[in-house]
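Per-residue structure
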Amino acid sequence: MTRLLVAGVGNIFLGDDAFGPEVIRALAQRPLPPEAQVRDYGIRGMDLAYSLLDGWPVVVLVDAAVRGERPGTLSLVEPELPDGRPAAPPGAHGMDPAKVLALAAHLGDEPLPRVLLLACEPGKPPRGDEDIAPGLSAPVRDAVERAVAALHALVPVLLADPLATPALARPEESAAPAAAGRPPRAATGAEDR
């Protein structure tokens, strides 16, 4: 039976960076099928790197990510996985999902699972002099329930076929996973395809 991991990523003390953990918390009220393991990794990138090596066919990361869209816009992104083992392990501090993938590639001998990123465009980042900025901005807070609904649509498709290319349901959100490294663009009301 196919199983998958849904992993929330982000710092709950840095405003909109808490998007991933907030989605995981909201999923407690609307659980996914039991074949989907749901975990909040917060800022524990090392733990997530090791979890990526646990034989999952597919992993869905949930995180805030700057993509050049309107705040609160959801995107489904399929990042390019590192090919081969890096010569030196990436540092374990300040790990974003790309660094976590690089670390997992360094640590493991097997290929990494398919990874999809359900990303939310953050609003205004905390000012440089702010060490703690709790609470989501209004657009990102509104995106939490849309992300829960999107996961309820995506997860059954991925459980049925881990290689499927599911679409987000709302027309202003991505219709299919997009490459991770596209340059930011002005918001036009339509998102990645």
